[in-house]
Write a structure and sequence with these properties.
Blueprint: E1 5-9, E2 31-35, E3 40-44, E4 53-58, E5 64-67, H1 75-84, H2 86-102, H3 106-117, H4 137-142, H5 153-156, H6 160-177, H7 182-191, H8 193-198, H9 207-227
Antiparallel strand pairs: 1-3, 2-3, 2-4, 4-5
């Protein structure tokens, strides 16, 4: 059992502030917030007691399941936490290259990746989506990712650069398919383009999909505001 503790002076923390800790191992744990007697905020992956507050709940795949108080986060603090993360730094060049190559906003890619996998390249969903961008093997095959001798498509998708490029290409195609409507493209990324089409080119009435679109758009807007 690992223990993660980050202290931030209350001056930098607004009421309700919480982003998730973008560190690969920590992405697989719930996170609690505690304010000590000195006014310092601590984040920990082990329940510290009755006075703690659960602020991040992750799914078994490592994706962000629930972030309490994310709407209260200051954009500059959110951006600072992302930039300070080793996990984000490792994939930054791949994200930038994919953004340039496929014309998808860099912050949108970050928002999708954060929501999908919390920057955990080893994340695998119960449905079989793999890696940073949670790409389905069937989708990857459409973009030229094929199994080799002793190597499955799923195992290839754990390569961060390949996963990012494949997810970005798919998202770029969805944006074009739905006329640049970001929310519809995100809904299709989550539920499939067929589901969006069957819903009359609207977000399907699936709770998971609606929640997913809201989460990604929230993070996306925070990231956009931080550079606006």
């Amino acid at each position: 059992m690992y223990f993660l503790r980050i202290s931030v002076h209350l001056l930098w923390v607004q009421a309700g502030l919480l982003f998730w800790l973008l560190i690969p191992d920590a992405a697989l744990a719930d996170v609690w917030k505690v304010v000590d007697a000195s006014g310092v905020v601590h984040f920990t992956n082990q329940p510290p007691g009755t006075k703690s507050e659960l602020v991040i709940e992750t799914s078994p795949s490592g994706a962000l399941g629930r972030a309490v108080g994310l709407t209260g986060a200051k954009p500059d603090v959110v951006m600072a936490m992302i930039n300070a993360s080793t996990a984000v730094g490792v994939v930054h060049d791949s994200l930038s290259a994919a953004s340039d190559a496929y014309g998808v906003d860099l912050n949108l890619l970050k928002a999708v990746m954060a929501t999908e996998s919390a920057f955990n390249s080893k994340a695998v969903s119960p449905k079989g989506a793999v890696g940073l961008m949670q790409v389905m093997p069937t989708t990857a095959t459409r973009y030229g990712v094929h199994a080799g001798r002793g190597v499955t498509v799923s195992s290839k998708l754990k390569d961060p650069d390949l996963n990012i490029r494949t997810g970005a290409r798919y998202l770029a195609d969805l944006l074009r398919l739905f006329g640049g409507q970001t929310e519809l493209a995100l809904a299709a990324y989550n539920a499939g383009e067929g589901a969006v089409a069957r819903a009359g080119n609207k977000i399907p009435d699936y709770r998971e999909t609606r929640y997913y679109v809201q989460r990604v758009m929230l993070v996306y807007r925070l990231l956009q505001a931080s550079v606006g």
